[in-house]
Amino acid sequence: MEGVGEEEMEGVDHLAHERNKSEFDVDAMKIVWAGSPHAFDVSDRISKLVASDPGFRKDNRSTLSRKELFKNTLRKAAYAWKTIVDLRLSEEEAAKLRFYVDEPAFTDLHWGMFIPAIKGQGTEEQQQKWLPLAYKMQIIGCYAQTELGHGSNVQGLETTATFDSQTDEFIIHSPTLTSSKWWPGGLGKVATHAIAYARLIVGGREHGVHGFIVQLRSLEDHSPLLGITVGDIGMKFGNGAYNTMDNGVLQFDHVRIPRNQMLMRVSQVTCEGKYKQSDVPRQLVYGTMVYVRQTIVADASCALSRAVCIATRYSAVRRQFGSQNGGPETQVIDYKTQQSRLFPLLASAYAFRFIGEWLKWLYADVTQRLQANDFSTLPEAHACTAGLKSLTTTATADGIEECRKLCGGHGYLCSSGLPELFAVYVPACTYEGDNTVLLLQVARFLMKTVSQLGSRLSSKKPVGTIAYMTRVEHLMQCRCGVQRGFAELSADLVEAAVAHCQLIVVSKFIEKLQQEIPGKGVKQQLEVLCNIYALFLLHKHQGDFLSTGCITPKHAALANDELRSLYSQVRPNAIALVDAFNYTDHYLGSILGCYDGNVYPKLYEAAWKDPLNESVVPDGYHLYIRPLLKQEIRTARL
Ligand SMILES: CC/C=C\C/C=C\C/C=C\C/C=C/C(=O)SCCNC(=O)CCNC(=O)[C@H](O)C(C)(C)COP(=O)(O)OP(=O)(O)OC[C@H]1O[C@@H](n2cnc3c(N)ncnc32)[C@H](O)[C@@H]1OP(=O)(O)O
Ligand SMILES: Cc1cc2nc3c(=O)[nH]c(=O)nc-3n(C[C@H](O)[C@H](O)[C@H](O)COP(=O)(O)OP(=O)(O)OC[C@H]3O[C@@H](n4cnc5c(N)ncnc54)[C@H](O)[C@@H]3O)c2cc1C
């Protein structure tokens, strides 16, 4: 490294003056962010464990070829498993460890979808057989639903599962090219088993899409089993990024599996070839998606807070213009324009944290009710998970990109961590349900509720997240008909669905503030953030609020004045508010966001480590540069 003194690299906290300005107890806020003292302890311990272990180093990802990258991911997954076993980590600690390793891998799908699918849709017997193997990773599973021709339209899947009563087996088959499974993570190169979704055919009759446990690869030598064609679907968006994952393609050629490998909690096929439906609603076949959507909402705040932490710290370090009498220039975080772009994202990170917490509670509640055969809250749980997944992932992906822009040119460097964060995160707007398709589900739920409000026959009063509807006068007077024009009005209905979900986020943030929150100044800071979140939305959508007569122009102006004042209140606390996320430099993976704010020497040093700088004269000079300079280009071999 050239030109950087040791003292500039080590030990000095360049953000100390910012930290000294804060007006609240950061340690208490860390507990609020983590959810509880216990959750903080686990998260803090495990994040430090991962950060201090060279086996989990991740700063070289963008320079590796796909093959090297993938092999490195396999190594890390194996090393993570060894660490989990050696240290006898609990399930909670193990999940945190995978989280802080921070690399998309087949294990996400194994633990995040394969196991939950068996738990949610398998019978007791099936769970007893498969879960111990999966927990010990003696089998590795993926979730194979999407096909080349159909993803959103699950009922349009073409793979078939035909019951053969002679052998007591299902024959799993891909009848067309478009029925090839396409996208499942972990499928391409690793999974030994899949939960494959296929149209069930019994005695010549079709019974819709069901899940089946299918072995794909030999447990001895990993070769595909008879009738299975399987591979990776190729490079995806961004260098490094999600290419650590082996999203796969899979074709079945009349693959036979025993009858007891159909997931039979929701419906069963007997050995005589009888199809039986349990009392539970058919939609429970979609249960794994509801579960994962809920975890995606909980994770959105992690990705957004990470980007916000980077952009906030860097905005306090970066100075441009405004030097007075040769003094320092202005920190860019002091520009009102920077604040008006950054602080709503900081507020969103906190808002999404709390909505994630609440959704976890809602999911646990609906699960408990389902076990007691109470299905009444399932439609609301579906609408909430679908809608909030859509809202939080869209806002988070857009927010990460905005944070990159807030960091100016340096935000475009891979060493800022933001390009990779965006590339890894943005598919969340598509997987587990395209965000528009999911909002249409919310709209459908809202319209159904409105039509019931208008019906004299219905005695149902809306409760939970739709209770407010009884207080909206024109909705109460609405007389159904809404279902008829649904497709025509769908673009507007999607906007209504977003507004409904925003209302949930704001009201749950307000509810959070009604709880006791210990720690000096902590509640006050959260109140400021909550007001920013709500007023920013009001400001952004003031056209809608004004045109519907919900507010007057005077209200709109007052809201905007208040917003500016709130930004000034956040300013001295901004660094402490992102410190409260308690992220290690390893997890952040960003020179711009490093804790000590010593950005420039680190950027300078990192540049010299780039493989292109290994030689002063680049490879290719003699072939392509010198002939150009010497005007010998016509004779050069190109
Ligand atoms: C810890 C981390 C964990 C895991 C790792 C996380 C991420 C790893 C990265 C990636 C993994 C990605 C995995 C995947 O992407 S898996 C594939 C996901 N695919 C989808 O999400 C497809 C989206 N499509 C659908 O969900 C459905 O097909 C859709 C709901 C759009 C339409 O279904 P269908 O046509 O059958 O239904 P409708 O006629 O519209 O509705 C009928 C009825 O059912 C209700 N409904 C629909 N879905 C559900 C549900 N999930 N739960 C409950 N109820 C549901 C719907 O509202 C209708 O009700 P009603 O109006 O009363 O008739
Ligand atoms: C990184 C990644 C990982 C994935 N992992 C898995 C996995 O592990 N397992 C698995 O099974 N799948 C997986 N998927 C697949 C994923 O679930 C689907 O891609 C997703 O559900 C969207 O479906 P689609 O691709 O068919 O999109 P499409 O439905 O083809 O969407 C294309 C466009 O059409 C629009 N559209 C579609 N239907 C409607 C409608 N009714 N009304 C209005 N507009 C509509 C959409 O909004 C979108 O703009 C993964 C995908 C990605 C990108």
UniProtKB/TrEMBL annotation:
Gene Ontology MF, one: fatty acid binding
Subcellular location field: Peroxisome
Acyl-CoA oxidase C-alpha1 domain boundaries: 286-447
Cellular component GO terms, alphabetical: peroxisome
InterPro entries listed in its UniProt record: ACOX_C_alpha1, Acyl-CoA_ox_N, Acyl-CoA_Oxase/DH_mid-dom_sf, Acyl-CoA_oxidase, Acyl-CoA_oxidase_C, AcylCo_DH-like_C, AcylCoA_DH/ox_N_sf, AcylCoA_DH/oxidase_NM_dom_sf
Residues the entry annotates as binding FAD: 146, 185
Entry keyword set: FAD, Fatty acid metabolism, Flavoprotein, Lipid metabolism, Oxidoreductase, Peroxisome
Gene3D superfamilies: Acyl-CoA dehydrogenase/oxidase, N-terminal domain, Butyryl-CoA Dehydrogenase, subunit A, domain 2, Butyryl-CoA Dehydrogenase, subunit A, domain 3
Chief location category: other
Homology family: Belongs to the acyl-CoA oxidase family.
Record's protein name: Acyl-coenzyme A oxidase
UniProt organism field: Rhododendron griersonianum
Lineage: Eukaryota, Viridiplantae, Streptophyta, Embryophyta, Tracheophyta
